[in-house]
Design a protein that fits this description.
Number of strands: 4
Oligomer: single chain
Length: 124
Amino acid sequence: MTLGVNYLMFACTLLKNIVPDVDIEVIEEHFKAKEGVSGTALKIAEKLDLEKENINSVRAGGIVGKHEVVFGFPYQTVRLVHESISREAFGNGALFAARELADKPKGLYNFEDILRPYFELKEG
């Protein structure tokens, strides 16, 4: 997964924690030949406690990958979107994680552990 899609999942989790009863749908788009629901869309759904039925798939042309999470509130929606426009994005996420973990103590980390400090509000 890319760094951007990990940011998307983290932000989606924060929003769902604020409003746990909101309606949520996931829309994922990929190249025409991709079969089945993407693993990324399944991971997003898992993080948000959604059923597979809440994932909508589009297959067209040469789309690398796009994931949109729609939060349906009464009278408004919030949409969070991530789109990979090149497969190079996948390597950048791995390099970011490696740099972030270089000075950390040995242990098991996930991307959420790496990103959490970036989402903390700084006072002052």
